[in-house]
Amino acid sequence: MxxxxxxxxxxxxxxxSTSEGAxxxxxxxxxxxxxxxxxLARMTLEEKLDQLHQCGTADLNPNNLASRxxxxxxxxxxxxxxxxxxVLETRNGLQRRAVEESRLxxxxxxxxxxxxxxxxxxxxxLAQACSWxxxxxxxxxxxxxxEASAHGIDWxxxxxxxxxxxxxxxxxxxxFGESPWASSMFAAASVRGYQGEDPAERGRVASCLKHxxxxxxxxxxxxxxxxxxxxxxxxxxxxxxxxxxxRAGAASVMSAFNDLSGIPTSANPYTLGTVLREQxxxxxxxxxxxxxxxxxxxxxxxxxxxxxxxxxxxxxxxVDMADGLYRExxxxxxxxxxxxxxxxxxxxxxxxxxxxRLGLFERPYAERNHFTDTRPDTxxxxxxxxxxxxxxxxxxxxxTLPIGGDARIALIGPLATERAALLGSWAQYGQPDETxxxxxxxxRIGRGRVVVTSVTEGCPIIGxxxxxxxxxxxxxxxxxxxxxxxxxxxxxxxxxxxxxASLSLAGDQLALARALLDIGRPVVxxxxxxxxxxxxxxxxxxxxxxxxxxxxxxxxxxxxxxxLGDANPSxxxxxxxxRVTGQIPVHHGSRPRARGGDEGAYRxxxxxxxxxxxxxxxYTDFEHGPIRLSAAQTxxxxxxxxxxLVRNAGARDGTETVLWMMQDPVARIxxxxxxxxxxxxAEISTGEAREFVxxxxxxxxxxxxxxxxxxxxxxxxxxxRVGRQVxxxxxxx
Length: 733
Ligand code: NOJ
Fold this sequence. Notes:
Elements: E1 4-7, E2 10-13, H1 15-18, H2 32-42, H3 45-51, E3 53-55, E4 78-81, H4 87-101, E5 109-112, H5 125-129, H6 134-150, E6 155-156, H7 180-195, E7 208-212, H8 231-238, H9 240-247, E8 252-255, E9 259-260, E10 263-264, H10 269-279, E11 285-287, H11 295-298, H12 305-315, E12 320-321, H13 325-336, H14 341-357, H15 378-391, E13 393-397, E14 408-412, H16 420-423, H17 438-445, E15 451-456, H18 471-478, E16 482-488, H19 509-517, E17 523-528, E18 544-547, H20 555-563, E19 622-624, E20 628-629, E21 633-635, E22 640-648, E23 654-663, E24 675-684, E25 689-696, H21 698-701, E26 704-705, E27 711-712, E28 716-722, E29 725-732
Parallel strand pairs: 3-4, 3-12, 4-5, 5-6, 7-8, 8-11, 14-15, 14-16, 16-17, 17-18, 21-29
Antiparallel strand pairs: 1-2, 9-10, 13-18, 19-22, 20-22, 22-25, 23-24, 23-28, 26-27, 28-29
The chain binds 1-deoxynojirimycin.
């Protein structure tokens, strides 16, 4: 129906009237499927293949757009953008060509790596997981979506759901930790945050579950490496978070770089076809990772680019990111009959469906709004601050923290004055110069309560200092009551292509720590990093140890508020913290060793991690009552309730997380030593108590996958642990 609306002095013609006489695919009132079919029927093969091409845009800006026009055909389906002051204009410029200069006017879709924020940078995902708060993680994703979408981004390549137990792998920073159960919860939360009810809503973006699948098992923690994963392990550890993301309605999935036991994941008919499409019914877009189609050649799976393109599209990769092999070779494959036209059409359908779903035909251009303002407002800062604060994990404390009482603090270490390092990798449009350093935040927030006597670098983050001269740092420490020692990594030392052979403190940092510990002043060690670091040799001598991770735009303020006691730490490790690099992999899900006690353990270190999965201290004392079960047994299809009363017996309000760990001692396929099956976080005021409840359904919480993903469930004894308490119940027929 034609119509118009008067809005102030503007006369807005409604979309119904514009679509009169237009082809069906242009009619907003038609169903998406009808529009897709109509448009597809009008497209030439060349236009279809352009839709399957995703193009990088390195160094593109509004000024060179016209001169580089040949690189960017108006019919290309999608583009990857990065954060820059002119990203919105660049995007709209490319879009104008797609809409106005292509024969059918199909809008392009614009993607970016919005991994932990766009302008307001949130903590890295590994840190976010340590908050154990999916609601907060969802709010973070929603903020990231709002900022990115205001800059013209329609589609984020997030959340990253890889399972990894090897912190040498740089991308462990991008994971939600080592529990597939927790990753599944954070996967769903992120998808909700990015997409909302409908990704077409203003301020939302389409999400992309990546990297499908098994990439986190990269051999030796080296990036882009072989991954040897049994089918059972694939179902147990690597697939669950993706399945959760698909069930949450994710619009897309990214196939990965890794060779999965001989069949690379960007050409793997089992993971892409049997599991994703057939078993999970996923009908969204599958996009390759950057050049992962071309890489099939290097991996020895395809003879050449033509072969690689055929293998990828046949396995189910719809969109070819960056390498252009689909455009180059698929037309010939269609004419020779190697690839049926129907395969191409199905892939194009999924791309068009995404564009209609995003409302791009009705609203192709991005518009500035308050999220494109130069400086994020306080509300945006508050989300980042809350997440950063909740992500910080207090690993050790002899009572030195929180700092108060006019303490005279020597702030030492190369991370005390860093800005970019706090943002972490993939910081996109994050602004280091708007990010406070740890020194600035402690001085500002602690003014009048503590005295910062000096700020001393001590040594650089990497590289050997000339003759290891720590005299300035030592003098600063001697002249103060205590040392806050900020050590760790540059942003670029973790993330993609940033694996490390060792988790040790780089450069002279360990030597600096030892020199300061030798003085005898209390040392509060603050670690800014994208992974756990090797600190076993100094940990027992530190008065306190804080894992601050890479906390984003508000990292320094969050840390200062915890050190100074304005906030009570509540983060818990979402990943096991190894003692030494050689202990990797060490994680809560290992299978029990064949012999008990310390038989088989390393002879040169203690047989435990430095800090276990779930570890984290508070400034208050939480007393856990006994775990109470509603019954001693349950049937396979029954339920049983477990409850634990937690009392805040300390002097401060605090936030407690209860992690429910389960152990199934005897099963048809051996089970991990423990698995996490439920978690809950709650604020508990001092003197108050809160009951945490876990409603156990054996089919959901105890069943486990076989090598085809079929769920098995056994009768028998089960152990349930919260903290140091363990109870047993029985599952019967
Ligand atoms: C390669 C990375 O592996 C992936 O995570 C990212 O989304 C793409 N590049 C696009 O930038």
